Amino acid sequence: MRWIKELTDPKARRWEEFYRNRWQHDRVVRSTHGVNCTGGCSWLVYVKEGIVAWEMQATDYPRLEAGLPPYEPRGCQRGISFSWYLYSPLRIKHPTIRGSLLDLWRAAKEEHSDPLAAWGSIVEDSEKRRSYQQARGKGGFRRTSWDEALEITAASTLYTIKRYGPDRIVGFSPIPAMSMCSYAAGTRLLSLLGGVVLSFYDWYADLPPASPETWGEKTDVAESADWYNSKYIVVMGTNLSMTRTPDVHFVAEARTNGAKLVVLSPDFSQVSKYADWWLPVTAGHDGAFWMAVNHVILREFYVERHVPYFADYLARYSDAPFLVTLDRGDGERYVPGRLLRAESLPRYRREENGEWKFLVFDRLSGEPRMPGGSIGFRWQREAGRWNLEMKDGLDGAEIEPLLSLLDGRDDVLPVSITDYAGGTSVARGVPVRYLETATGRTPVTTVFDLLMANFGVGRGLSGDYPEDYNAAAPGTPAWQEEYTGVGRETLIRFAREWAGTAERTRGKCTIIVGSGANHWYHSNLTYRTGITALILCGCVGVNGGGLNHYTGQEKVAPEASWSLLAFAKDWTKGGRFQNTPSFHYVHSDQWRYDGGAADPRPDPKGGPAGRHPMDLQVDAVRMGWLPFYPQFDRNPLELVKEAEAAGAKGDEEIIRWVVEELEKKRLRFAVEEPDAPENWPRLWLIWRGNALLSSAKGHEYFLRHYLGTHDSSIADECAAEQVENAAWQDAAPRGKLDLVVDINFRMDTSALYSDIVLPTATWYEKDDLNTTDLHSFIHPLSAAVPPCWESRSDWEIFKALAEKISALARIHFPEPVRDIVAAPLLHDTPGEIAQSEVRGWHRGECEAVPGTTMPRLAVVERDFVHLLDRFVSLGEEVKREGIEERGLRWPVADLYDELLESAPVREWGGKRFPSLAEAVDAANAILHFAPETNGEVAWRAFRSLEEKTGLTLADLASDYRGTRYRFSDLVSQPRRILTSPCWSGVTNNGRPYAPYCLNVERLVPWRTLTGRQHFYLDHGWYRAFGEHLPTFKTRIDTEESGHLAKSRPVGKALMLNCLTPHGKWHMHTTYYDNHRMLTLSRGIEPFWLNDRDAEEIGVKDNEWVEVYNDNGVVVTRAVVSARIPRGVGIYYHAPERTISVPLSPLRGNRRAGGHNSLTRARLKPVLMAGGYGQLSYAFNAWGPPGSDRDTYVYVHKLEGALRY
Amino acid sequence: MKVRAQVSMVFNLDKCIGCHTCSIACKNIWSDRRGAEYMWWNNVETKPGTGYPTLWEDQEKYRGGWERTDREPRLRLHSRGGGLAKLFFNPRLPTIDDYYEPWSYRYGDLLSAPAGDDQPVARPVSLVTGDPINIEAGPNWDDDLGGSPVYGAHDPNLAAVSEAERRQLFLLERMVLFYLPRICNHCANPGCVAACPSGAIYKRGEDGIVLVSQEKCRGWRMCVSGCPYKKVYYNWGSGKSEKCILCYPRQETGQAPACFHSCVGRLRYLGVLLYDAERIERSASRPDHDLVQAQREMILDPSDPEVVNKAAEEGIHPAVLAAARNSPVYRFVKEWRLALPLHPEFGTVPMLYYVPPLLPLAADRENGCYDLGGEFFTSLEQGRLPLRYLASLFSAGNEEIIRAVYRKLTAVRVHRRAATTGDVPAGELERFLAEAGTTPEEAEAIYHMTSLAGFDERHAVPPFMREMAMEMSVDPADRKGEAGTGFLRPPKRGW
Question: Where is the 4Fe-4S Mo/W bis-MGD-type domain positioned along the sequence (chain A) (predicted)?
Fold first, then answer.
């Protein structure tokens, strides 16, 4: 055709070099994005003329085993827009400080030559203090020098230590895995100082408490490639397209490979487009769905049919066959009691740790028997008996545990089963045997029999069992309809397909789950009901199966060696680790606004169940369950001196003196009067995160009580009458913090509200390490260009701060000082078998014994003069002690010496140390000592586990003993992590990582009470709160939430449940302000609501709305969409307050807030339990999370003219 | 027979997650410049929706592409003579409101705001005027069914479905969305080329890439109108039109285009197609019902000896022929008949192809409860979108073609379910394969390509033999030493 111009003429095409020139570049460097997204994608950064011009994904991941799709490419829309930040107008180029503080400082320095005196003159003068606190967040930044900014920070640090103690200094940085050396820089400094490291995983509500509850592990999940092995995939409360952007292709590919995909989500979420079935389960009520699924599975696959794979799996790998005592409840009814302890039977009376060994009913002997593997075996003197072989712990005889006591039962007793959603209770017959125990004739049943009663499967037993699926009794398919909106026929089909697939494939069914399910107050229950369906069908510890929870890039693959550096364990054991939810609930005074008990519960009389969470929080600290800092109402350095002045000699006497002071109430825990000035946190260091908004549940209370600036909460304080354990001050303090220092590369909300902002290198300007749980590679961040403008890497910043502190310490702390550190009873230590019953020493129920009935206490040395030297040197403690992780310990002295020979060294104090002066040195040290990156270490770690279990395991590492990764290797290509006993998957020969394969295949126990997966949690608080069995509780209702106690609908307003799932155009707040992302979205994070809901209040698409409750207010644009269910508003997590946020007429025409202006932290008491097996504290692994989904708001059209 | 080689592409929409990584890869490299702010050579749209620029599919509004006449296809915009008359007034251009007014924010205020009594904020400002702006449109404005009553409900393809079906689509139990990534289609019968009064637009002989010469373009913008996909953009800074260049600088160095490289859903495939240029007109002129079939016929079998001979006569390098035989695109389009052109009725013979997405089962709602039934997987009868809607997009209304694609896609899944799980009832697998007209071998091959294929299998970039191309004007040995020397200056306005 004549008009088609086909051109080959080279002359006419010379211009083509126009675009070729654009593509030319000078350098390509491998890096990644240190953002909490779990992506962990390897990127190539293109440098042109010394400027980063763009980035593209690396595609050279080593392939896994044949028959799996490859990982390439990984990296999403957010990551690929990162280069915009480097030279953007948001970039922090120079050290920056609030002008009002700078003026005060310079004036003070005129008067006081000593920086500490200068700092004191500001913060001790209430007027001066108020003047810069009130200015927080309101502009007036000025450029300063590194020297001046560091001097102020260092002076504040030492001033705080001297005046109040090091435990008034806190640091927050999230998710080490995304850039682990940068994280470690700050925590290493804090740990050497004695400062407090704040957790993140639980605070974000990303920690799934059901994981420690069931498996004793904070989270252990399959890498995304393993999804491909699954044949039935349920996606619940997670939006893979949005949040697992680089991985979701495995789901699409698994579907092509014959897997069915079912999505549970209240809205037609983006991942729903992939689904075979989309089930719009009512928000927060997925648990009811799973309750009924379990009902169907138990009935059809356990009672009506016998499936050998399921039954055998359940008997060996779960607590289902373990014996539980039944206690008398109300009237004729019984209630499930504690697991039957071995020591309560004559046969096992002399067993070591007999209180921590548990029993099954053995078919062979016809008697109760004590299989190995329970926690008592883990911590007994004789090693080698902690394993899952079904043998009696006493004589080694084979055991065949009975799942049920139905056959050969002595009796059937009515057991009370409560429907918390309906507020009713029924009695269901449970088969029992009577045993003669230390306390007399005791009825016992099995966990399995309790499950049958719990899920309403009758087996012909007496009691209130439903006749069929159509009965409206708790647990049936008909019952769940009311809560989920899913029809019974659909549910029944689902359950059959699920279990049928698992039966065919030996467990290849998976639940991929995330924050949409996990951010609810009762998330642990939702998860436990789903996990039940997995365990009942033998799906855990199988490639292609299991619970895959991805929220928060929590997996630091080389954790053992990384934590050594990060928490300065090479120098000191005196780290202070704080669970952040408790910290913020208490210190930001959110407890004062908490109306109390939010749990539906049958019987609040007596016990913990009727008490205010603050009271329980205080008790949890007293009993050593949860940490709390500041720990006491006195300076811990002074406390040691006082003890010595009182005649205490040596650490033990000092500790004894401190315990006596506590007993006599002369010394108080700070948590008992958190609002007293001596108990406030004083200095807050923030790096790698957005602590003041993105993650700050109850943001407005942060502004009010921490910062002392304006806020938009109208909530009343309402806890005064309810709280007994904590002293109430009539006026809550405003502005507790003396100084907030933010280390940042961009002007985000935290930077905007901080006193000092230090410019940090971006992810394209520094060297670091990166891992995630979504894939099994370790790979680097590396510097494509040097840190821009005056920025420095986090490692260099904390080094410089250490140098400044060391210099000032020569005057103020010329000699080492001693510090007393209080810490909770820890998981994976003998402290987890400290408290078999709940007893309070403070109530006189037991003696005060540190490390048993109350927190551990330790006296440690702090050497502030040598702070820098220690920071940059790998201490000899590791050489002496070896490396310890998850209760294992292995020697590394020769490897330490190897570093002295082969790596840079530091010399001081007459000794040589491996150097950590550069971030690369730190990275290499991490790689050198980690089982996951050094085959020899893996082998040694497995040897250690062999000793503990008596199993053969080191063969898993023997093929890789010679493998060593160095930083430069990772720069050339990502490397795959090695199989390690610190984790539970097997990655040999390209096999995809799936959790608990080691447990299932090699009989290594789970780190739980019975050593098996737990359905049943017999801790006193769990029974008091009715969470001993997997059950369903509805979301917290509007009234109990307390969010709308004062707020009233204004004009045409609608009340909605406000959900904040992860957004498409940002990772939390990172990338939110990025021009690319704002352009591809609506230029703001809008509020999504249903089209008919919008019509009701007269709101059209893109119009401005006010969203508000008692906590605060948001003003944004509405997106009207039929994809959102009625009654729900979605405000994707997480916007910044810095971009396009107008004033709110409703709240005095002041700047409106962000998503966390609408939330308030709330603690769930059962999750505070401690000193009890898997219910024991571990940093980022246990404790009540900061849930945020049970939040209600009003929304109405913004009236009047829009004003900025 | 006139054999031509075309670098062509397939988008497997089932795997598209609408993440826009492709869009940004492209933006970062090619259109992050003054005058190009609003350009998205690659964009991704939510369907149902109105897209970018808004309602681009509505040719009553834009008059893009070709009209079929009794004699030969004619540009909808104008005849060539008529075009000259309209040089200075072309009413068929999208306005800035049809695209969007590019904006930014006063980011600097956050750092520089003086001490005040409230928090400073970065206000949105227009990138055109610099003044505060009320943002009312963007390049991805109706993303994920945002504003569904305004945008989703006015998708031009919904004209193909009944009023009742249209209403149902926005009920929760029928709700559906999918994504449509779009770049220049590098058409065989490009409207932009035909519309250009300056002769600045051409199709490269060796690979079929359509380019706007930045030397010859005079900014008449007839190409913008002539392209029914609205994939040519006017750069207000340089005064020239620009468009997707299919990353020829990357392809010439053996790399896939940036949007393809960065596709994290792994849904894009690239490879050479051979086609018969003599059949272009016939392809474009057939009745709607036959358009897809005609286009399939235009594509030549690279293993056919006659084609190979003719190709050699045309000077197509043997390595390019080898690449054509190894082309995943050929398999999707011609062998498996799974990949379809986007709006073939526009008449430009677009050379990019789409595999329609699988969709969730539709549900019923009874007594307030949501119920699903029927097939284990998605089924034709209960899919959430009427076939007519998909036919409006990909087959000029021919539903049978869409049905055949779905039958085959489902058969592949059933085949793999049977192979891996074994719970497909006896006879079912055979029934699925037979209805789809496929074999276990073909199903296995499709499974392999859609699931397992690695980067190099998905992107069979042909060799460009640059030394031979260069040799026509400059000695490669000289070029080796001098390439890159010289002064780089931004283009000047040509008029």
Answer: 26-90
Quick: pLDDT tens for A851-910: 999 999 999 999 999 999 999 999 999 999 999 999 999 999 999 999 999 999 999 999
Work out the percent of chain A whose per-residue pLDDT is above 90.
96
- Measured at the CA of A110, the angle between CA A109 and CA A113, to 5 degrees, comes to 55
pLDDT tens for A643-699 read 999 999 999 999 999 999 999 999 999 999 999 999 999 999 999 999 999 999 999
DSSP-assigned letters across all residues of A1010-1031: SSSB-S----HHHHHTT-SS--
User: Which residues in chain B touch residue A1123, judged by CB atoms under 8 angstroms apart?
Assistant: 144-145, 148, 175, 177
Buried b (16+ CB within 10 A) or exposed e, A68-77: bbbbbbbbbb
Domains of chain A, first to last: 222-280+486-549 (3.40.228.10), 321-468 (no CATH), 1038-1197 (2.40.40.20)
CA atoms within a 13 Å half-sphere pointing along the CA-CB vector of A267: 31
pLDDT at B84: 56
Cα Rg for chain B, rounded, in angstroms? Answer: 24
Whole-complex ipTM: 0.96
Question: What is residue A517's predicted lDDT score, i.e. its pLDDT?
Answer: 95
Note whether A1127 contacts B: Cβ–Cβ < 8 A: no
State the nearest Cα–Cα gap between B262 and chain A, in angstroms.
6
Residue A18 in contact with partner chain B when CB distance is under 8 A = yes
Domain ranges of chain B: 1-96+141-397+454-484
Give yes or no for A268 touching B (CB within 8 A).
Answer: yes
Residue-wise burial string across B332-349, b where 16 or more C-beta atoms lie within 10 A, e elsewhere? bbbebbbbbbbbbbbbbb
> What residues of chain B, 314 to 333, have a C-beta less than 8 Å from chain A?
none
Chain B residues within an 8 Å CB radius of A1089 = none
Cα distances (Å, whole numbers) of residue B165 to A1121, B174, B390: 18, 9, 13
Name the more confident of A1040 and A1108: A1108
Name the A residues in 483-502 with CB < 8 Å from any B CB.
485-490, 493, 497, 500-501
How close does chain B come to A241, measured CA to CA in Å? Answer: 6
| Rg value, chain A, Cα | 29
CA dihedral A1113, A1114, A1120, A1123 (to 10 degrees): -90
Q: Is the pLDDT of residue A491 over 80?
A: yes
Assess whether pLDDT exceeds 80 at residue A990.
Answer: yes
Of the candidates A859, A860, A856, A850, the residue with the CA atom closest to the CA atom of residue A663: A850
Taking the Cβ of residue A8 and every Cβ of chain B, the question of whether any pair is shorter than 8 Å is answered with yes
What is the chain A residue with the closest CA to B365? Answer: A487
The pLDDT of residue A3 is above 70: no
Q: What is residue B86's predicted lDDT score, i.e. its pLDDT? A: 62
Single-letter residue type at A887: G
Give the one of B143, B172, B213 whose C-beta lies nearest to A1081's C-beta: B143
- Could you give the angle at which helices A919-929 and A893-902 cross, rounded to 10 degrees? 150
A830 touches B at CB < 8 Å? no
Whether the pLDDT of residue A98 is over 70: the answer is yes
Half-sphere exposure of A213 (CA within 13 A, CB side): 29
What is the C-alpha separation between A766 and A672, in angstroms, rounded?
A: 43
Single out the residue of A1029, A1173, A1020 nearest to residue A447, CA to CA: A1029
- Which fold would CATH assign to domain B1-96+141-397+454-484? Alpha-Beta Plaits (3.30.70)
Angstrom distance (rounded) from CA B149 to CA B170: 8
